Model the fold of this input.
Amino acid sequence: MRRRYGNMVLEAIRSLLRKPETLPSKEIERKIFTEESRGIPTLIADKCIGCSLCAMTCPSQAITMIPGGKRSIGGRVIEIKIPSFDYSKCIYCELCAQICKQNAIEIRKDQDPIIIMKNGESR
Done:
């Protein structure tokens, strides 16, 4: 019994002197988005011509075309629509960036991940 109690005390003292095995929450959040992670699709609005290929290709229907203003294309001023991403639906498959012939959708890995909360808010 004494030996068991002594081992418990010794293990408790060792635990107090060791580095914690759990990470603070901020360090965990930083490690969520690593080099192996898929990136976040981001629109480069100046390059977009509003062809809607990205929205038609998106398997999770996370892209909606919204009014993007007027632009001169081929000598004509036309109203274009640009993609808007719903990150709560996005599966980060990168098809939108692959299909875009204008390279208007960039997959960015330098941004923090977008975390969708249960109440619909994002951070």
Summary: The first strand starts at residue 40 and ends at 43.
